[in-house]
Design brief:
By secondary structure, the chain is of the alpha+beta class. It has two domains: 4-120 and 262-271, Diaminopimelate Epimerase, Chain A, domain 1 (Roll); 128-260, Diaminopimelate Epimerase, Chain A, domain 1 (Roll), CATH 3.10.310. Helix content is 17%, strand content 46%. It has helices at residues 31-38, 78-92, 164-172, 212-226, and strands at residues 4-12, 15-21, 48-53, 62-68, 73-74, 98-103, 106-113, 116-120, 128-135, 138-146, 150-155, 183-191, 194-201, 206-208, 232-235, 241-249, 252-261, 263-271. The protein has an 18-stranded mixed β-sheet that branches. It is globular, with a radius of gyration of 18 Å. The termini are close together.
């Protein structure tokens, strides 16, 4: 006899997710099952899966689990966190406009601001600038920042001509970032507080229409490298504009927020 599992399809800036309610009973998730659900030909299709769980410690309303499309669990997802705010409100109700959420990267705050959601993220690690490697036949200079998950940035003249998949895949799997690999962002600076970003996402193993943690890493590194001033307006591949704010304290980024649109697209049921 098949079992029915309710899910919600959500999207934020073109990053799409499947949302599940795991507060009451185990969902029996496996890497294979998640990958099948995220398959765009044979499943519902998504960049990843969000699961609402009860918090483990005090001071949090929920726990967020995030799985990439390949079924592997990741520490954090910026756009996923914004969608998680809508998912948690949908499954648990409540009228509050602020949620405190546990993630594997630390506690985050989610604020509903009209039709947008603002994420107050854990402090990133220390930036590492100017690493040179050879990938896909090119010598490239990369800057690194962990914003909950690892990201590198290559600054380019135009994101339109960037070989996102070819170069991104070569950098993502480069031995310099072994064993876990890295996400790869190609960034063009337009004006003093505006940038464009295209991202090759680890775990999805393709370009996505947006990546929240990548947008954050790109904004901070654009400040350090190119003098881009916060709040930074970021044009994503999906056409949405996300806003990143932060301060630098002795070279270390603090008080980082990511704000942008999120919505529930539809509800469905998996037969498993």
């Amino acid at each position: 006899m098949s079992r029915r599992i309710a899910f919600w399809k959500l999207e934020g800036a073109g990053n799409d997710f499947l949302g599940l309610d795991g507060r009451r009973k185990p969902l029996g998730l496996s890497r294979e099952k998640i990958a099948a659900w995220c398959d765009r030909q044979r499943g519902a299709g998504a960049d990843g899966v969000l699961v609402v769980e009860k918090p483990r410690g005090r001071g949090a309303d929920f726990r967020m689990r995030y799985y990439n499309a390949d079924g592997g669990e990741a520490e954090m997802c910026g756009n996923g966190a914004r969608c998680f705010a809508l998912l948690a409100k949908e499954v648990a109700g409540g009228r509050g406009q602020r949620l405190r959420v546990e993630t594997k990267a630390g506690l985050i705050l989610l604020d509903l601001v009209g039709k947008e959601v603002r994420v107050s993220m854990p402090d990133p690690g220390l930036p590492r600038l100017g690493k040179e490697i050879t990938a896909a036949g090119r010598r490239v200079k990369l800057d690194f920042l962990n914003t909950g998950v690892p990201h590198v940035v290559e600054f380019v003249r135009s994101v339109e001509t960037a070989e996102v998949v070819k170069s991104g895949r070569a950098i993502r799997f480069h031995s310099a970032f072994a064993p876990s690999g890295t996400n790869v962002n190609f960034v063009a600076v337009n004006r003093k507080n505006r940038i464009e970003v295209r991202t090759y996402e680890r775990g999805v193993e393709a370009e996505t229409l947006a990546c929240g943690t990548g947008v954050v890493a790109s904004s901070i590194l654009a400040n350090l490298r190119r003098g881009v001033k916060p709040p930074v307006k970021v044009l994503t591949r999906g056409g949405d504009v996300l806003t990143v704010n932060f301060i630098l304290d002795n070279g270390r980024p603090r008080k980082v927020t990511l704000q942008g649109p999120a919505r529930i697209v539809y509800e469905g049921v998996f037969n498993v």
